[in-house]
Amino acid sequence: QVRLVESGGGLVQAGGSLRLSCAASGRNFNDKAMGWFRQTPGEEREFVASISWDGERTLYAVPVRGRFSISRDNAKNTVYLQINSLTPEDAAVYYCAANTGYLPNIVTITYDYWGQGTQVIVSS
Question: What tens digit of pLDDT does each residue of 104-122 get?
């Protein structure tokens, strides 16, 4: 079992930055790739970024490349998502998820543990 708790969401002006955190507890966190997804009302949950178990490899969705950065600190059992140059299109509930494997992955069904989400609101 892995429990994930996101934090760091909030209201930010367009062009601003946020850092989201995902604190993990339970077994085998350090063996798992981790991912961030986001969802807006009426839409499917979409992939944002993923990181390998050791932090050496990352994947990003095209719309966020160059603006978002995923990282992890295995000593603290925490994954981060640095979000820069926010646009209104980035407003969503952001979810942290733990993958069944150890390499980055964009496929939602390969993630078996999910947090409750943290909301990001962007004012224009």
Answer: 999 999 999 999 999 999 9
Among candidates 120, 122, 64, which has minimal Cα distance to 92?
A: 120
Give the max Cα distance, the chain. Answer: 41
Q: Are 36 and 50 in contact (CB under 8 A)?
A: yes
**What pLDDT, in 10s, does the model give residues 72-104?**
999 999 999 999 999 999 999 999 999 999 999
What tokens were used for 119?
A: 């909301």
Integer Cα distance of 35 and 13 in angstroms: 25
Residue 38 burial (C-beta neighbours within 10 Å; 0-12, 13-18, 19+): buried
Number of C-beta neighbours around residue 96 at 10 A: 28
Segment (H or E) for 12? strand 10-13
d(CA 14, CA 58): 25
Rounded CA-CA distance 61/105 in Å is: 11
